[in-house]
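Hey,
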Amino acid sequence: MGGEAGMSTAEYAVGTLGAAALAAVLYQVVTGDSVTGKIEELIARALRAPF
């Protein structure tokens, strides 16, 4: 007998849930105060750089 190819519906559901959870965690990290402050500092330093 041949093996099954691809994912079943339950596997898609678990994969989608995992991807959504990872996206939520990354969103919280990126929008946190420390990351936002570092990005703002980096942009400010780049704008002050002599050309």
